[in-house]
Amino acid sequence: MTQTQELDLRIHAVNTERNVVEAALAQQFPAFTALTPRPASAAGQVGLHARPDELAPQVTEALYGEALEVLEELEGGWAWIRTLHDGYLGYARSEGLSEVRPASVKITALRAHLYAAPSIKAPLLSRLSSGAGLHVLGEQEQHGEYSWWRVAFKDREGFVRTSATEPQEPGDFEDELRQYLGVPYVWGGRSAWGIDCSGLAQLVTRLPLPRDADQQRDVLPATRTPRQGDLAFFPGHVGIMLDERRMIHANATHMAVSIETLGEGSYGRKLAQTLTGFGRVPDDLGAAQDAAK
């Protein structure tokens, strides 16, 4: 087994074609060039690809304002980057990155838009999704009947309705998840504009889960009897339990987020037959991860 085969290349930055390696692994690869990362943030909804090619599969997605690090600038306007909240690697267009700006407000609406001017008739600059962070440039502004935030966007400014950032009253867990019903299934997606199974698990648990289903399974303690909020695992798939049998998940069968009852209906029976186990989602995921090491 080679050194790279021993590493999970989704989270460990080693490239044998370019002979480069992240600084933390430099001693293991003394012949490689050690990379010096620089901080950045997502200047919009940024897709990360498996290769520096628009036609390469999307492996994950950074939400507007999420913290990143740029490991390497490549020819053709691409960059090798890591999403800091889960350590995942991928290639993104450099134009989708910006300098780090502290997030003043977060999007709480399921979906929103960034406008070029404080008007619902203005051109759209970017799509926004729940969890996106915005750097505000001043106080709220009233234009007509609506209140707006003026926010930083790349080398200019944009505007978002303040209603999209208002605190949400804590509600029923199932009702919160039902907001995602019908959201399109998109491989590598992490937003309410398009999402995959493990991306949904990351968003709705609001805990520092790893990106992919197998990684999530590895950090959660197993449980035989699931409770609301626990994760259900299948080969290459994950769902969130609403109770002991009902599960909400983003799936390619319906090409959307849907609810299934394990063991009922043709799809529910198939899921029950391929179930590999349940993972208990604790209140303190960090402590659970430390215990699993």
Into which percentage range does the β-strand content fall? 35-45%
Shape estimate: flat
Strand order of the largest sheet: 20-25-21-22-23-24
Terminal CA distance: 23 Å
Number of domains: 3
| Helix/strand structural class | mainly beta
Using the coordinates above, name the CATH class of the largest domain. Alpha Beta
Separate helix tally: 5
Protein name: Peptidase
Family: Belongs to the peptidase C40 family.
Domain NlpC/P60: 167-279
Keywords: Hydrolase, Protease, Thiol protease
Task: Please describe the structure with a list of short key phrases separated by commas or semicolons.
6-stranded antiparallel β-sheet, Papain-like_cys_pep_sf, 293 residues, 3 domains, disordered C terminus, SH3 type barrels
Overall description:
Belongs to the peptidase C40 family. This is Peptidase. Keywords: Hydrolase, Protease, Thiol protease. GO terms for molecular function: cysteine-type peptidase activity. This protein is mainly beta. The protein has three domains: 4-98, SH3 type barrels (Roll), CATH 2.30.30; 105-165, SH3 Domains (SH3 type barrels), CATH 2.30.30.40; 173-292, endopeptidase fold (from Nostoc punctiforme), CATH 3.90.1720.10. Helices cover 14% and strands 36% of the residues. It is built from five helices and 25 strands. It has helices at 173-178, 197-205, 213-219, 265-274, 285-292, and strands spanning 14-15, 20-22, 33-35, 38-42, 46-49, 58-62, 67-74, 78-83, 88-93, 97-98, 105-106, 111-115, 124-129, 133-134, 141-143, 146-153, 156-161, 190-191, 194-195, 222-223, 231-234, 237-241, 246-251, 256-261, 277-279. Strands 20-25-21-22-23-24 form a six-stranded antiparallel sheet, sandwiched between helices. Strands 9-8-7-4-10 form a five-stranded antiparallel sheet, with no helix packed on it. A hairpin with a 4-residue loop joins strand 23 and strand 24. The longest helix has 10 residues, at 265-274. It is flat, with a radius of gyration of 20 Å. The two termini are 23 Å apart.
